[in-house]
Amino acid sequence: MTDSSSALPLAVFDLDNTLADTAHRQPFLERSPRDWDAFFAAAPQDPPIPEGVQLVRESARECEIVYLTGRPERCRRDTLDWLAAHGLPEGRVHMRRNDDRRPARRTKLEILGRLARTREIRVLVDDDELVCADAERAGHRVVRARWTAPSGALKAAQEREGRT
Question: How many domains does the chain have?
Fold first, then answer.
């Protein structure tokens, strides 16, 4: 990282249903029991979401990009490959520990808090309403990624099962 980039504000982007369309993976969460291995194994086939991709590229003109996802660490290689394959801006990727089952709003707000101690966070872009609301209460500017159809199964996974 160059000295000039360290002074840039951060633009923090979620992945699933913000940049990556997970609709084709939802059936794995709609069955009982949920098939988490298949859900995450299918992530490399996620199509990019044009609205999110455009916003992350625009943000990269003035900000350092940071990716903040609820995906487990074991998905890092697939996630980095997906970002590169779709030409998204480089940026640090923060993922949850493989054994971390806390709600996304807790894990993401912890990371945002750590980032905010040393850098300005210009914006958080996320589809999870609970993450967005908590981030706003913490004083962050939020853009709600409302460009995909909400999934009840994914919402339950994010909040109650701490899986994504």
Answer: 1
